[in-house]
Amino acid sequence: MSVAAFAATFLNEVYTVSTEVTRATFNEVMVPNYAPSEIIPVRGEGSRVWDKEDKEYIDFAGGIAVTALGHSHPTLVNIMREQAGQIWHLSNVLTNEPALRLAKKLTEKTFADRAFFANSGAEANEAAFKLVRRYAFDHFSPEKNEIIAFNKSFHGRTLFTVSVGGQAKYKEGFEPTPAGINHCDYNDIEQLKAIISDKTCAVVMEPIQGEGGVIPADKEFAQQVRDLCDQHNALLVFDEVQSGVGRTGTLYAYEQLGVTPDVLTTAKALGNGFPVSAMLATEKVANSMVAGTHGSTYGGNPMACAIAEGVIDIVDTPEILSGIQERHDLFKSELNNLNEKYNIFQEVRGMGLLIGAELIDSFAGKAGGFVSAAEKEGLFILVAGPNVLRFAPSLIIPKEDITEGFARLEKAVIQAIENTAAA
Predict the structure, then answer these.
(1) If both were cysteines, with which of 58, 94, 335, 382 could 90 make a disulfide (CB 3.0 to 4.6 Å apart)?
(2) Binding residue per annotation — 242?
(3) Is 76-315 a domain of CATH 3.40.640.10?
(4) Is 240 annotated to bind ligand?
(5) The model's pTM
């Protein structure tokens, strides 16, 4: 029997005796750091998902801004199949063609000259934060090690990245955390001027704060941050883990701000759900990360990079990018229509298809209730903190899915309002 025939027989036998699992299984076997919904999705196509009971949902969440090309995109499925039949993993003792092709495309399409690949946004940010300190160590002194970030920012869940992130709740119980990190308010240049110094090695910012409430940077603020970094020989790091790969209407959001960073991190949509991330940097800065200073066992593996290359090829086209603003306008129009009927939002904001709707004070802290009500109506949405509903759908979500999704959201809003009044 050939190897292929043996494998087919083996897999057939294994999967005919599959283990039955339910939502209760989560409570029995998983670490309780998540509190997932009661449903278990089992398949998806485009912007629609079906659960174990075959109930259909429209996806306005995109796996938290990840599935930019929807579920089971046929081109990406074919790329995965083709690469699976060639080579999956090599380690970075060797390089591979998909990684080199992806790095070439990312550097050609951005300000960057060099790429480092990892598996998640947190890992890309960890690499970036190490790099900026190493660069300052190489070019200035060990004392130039301070990183400045912004309140309400989010940069990942590792100990270093939660320390740079501007939300104290993520550090609670994990102290002592890395030192040499300061924070100030986003979009407040005077606060930044008051704390930046010649000991600052980098300023880290999101072009649009995602987890912090879907808050875009003021263009003038971003330009002043760049100027301050230059004055103090500090690097500017843009965390585009959530805003990158077309999410805001350009391949990366920095293009809309008229500001070029020294380092950029990207993940989430880069693999459309397959784990992959990248840290991009100028050659001058990247040269500080010499052999032995950092690494990743899985980072840059052929499978991840082949898929990411396919995502970039599809997203960075006029037809995809031009459709994002049109969908943005449709989302905002539908949200404003809901607000005219039910008076629930104090502000609708965002860029491209990263949109936040901040609830009025009488619904403060109730965003989760709207998410739960939406799910019951067959719709996935997100929160960005306790007061903001967040929408991050596929960049190619069909307009009929948007219309149907908002019909479901209206029913959810009515239910959430009733639930709040009854509480």
Answers:
(1) 94
(2) yes
(3) yes
(4) yes
(5) 0.94
